[in-house]
Design brief:
It contains 8 helices and 3 strands; from the N terminus they run ααααααβββαα. The protein has 192 residues and is mainly alpha-helical. It has a domain at 36-107 and 148-172. It has a 3-stranded antiparallel β-sheet with strand order 1-2-3. The chain is globular and about 50 Å long.
């Protein structure tokens, strides 16, 4: 797993160091509105990645938006990623760039830290307490100030754009996919 923000950006900020520390309980405060807004931007940017994966599955299967949505809507991120990777690996030479980018997407740690953590913060920083149980319980805290969160968002947007190009997903594909499936399921001719 890797971080999207180069370590050089974190090196000069003592608050971003990785040394284990006690949980900052009792020190929570609402973050600066610009920092909270950047968290929303992260969620929107990650949504573009997930949507591109769904549309990529539909393009690979040559299915309509409604059928693709029926198959993919209930799946979590990893199964979607695995399905698209399997479909692309039917022709790994042709799809080499998309496969490479999907591997990169699958290795992003920031997504799990932000989307699957207990969140706390102060005016200048949001921290994410990522707790896991596999063979043993682990708990770590990742801190994001506005610079780190902004850099992460920009990197995800760049990766999303590259993935769309590699999969042949156009802006029109993206816009029509969700509208078409929404309209199809909500039209009078479709029964629940």
């Amino acid at each position: 797993m890797r971080r999207l923000v180069p370590s050089i950006l974190l090196r000069d900020d003592p608050a971003m160091k990785k040394a284990p520390e006690p949980a900052p309980t009792g020190k929570w405060a609402m973050p600066d509105p610009k920092l909270a807004q950047m968290l929303g931007h992260f969620i929107m940017a990650w949504s573009a990645i997930e949507a591109t994966i769904e549309i990529g599955i539909g393009k690979q299967l040559c299915t309509k938006p409604l059928e693709t949505s029926i198959v993919t809507a209930g799946l979590m991120f990893r199964p979607r990623l695995s399905i698209l990777m399997s479909l692309l690996n039917r022709d790994p030479v042709k799809n080499a760039e998309a496969i490479r980018l999907l591997k990169e997407v699958g290795d992003i740690e920031d997504r799990n830290d932000i989307m699957h953590s207990v969140i706390g913060g102060s005016a200048s920083m949001i921290w994410f307490n990522r707790r896991k149980t596999k063979n043993t319980f682990t708990s770590k805290i990742e801190k994001y100030n506005q610079i780190r969160l902004n850099s992460t968002v920009l990197a995800i947007l760049d990766l999303s754009d590259k993935l769309m190009k590699a999969l042949g997903v156009t802006k029109e594909d993206y816009l029509s996919f969700f509208q078409d499936s929404h309209n199809a399921v909500n039209s009078a001719s479709v029964s629940p």
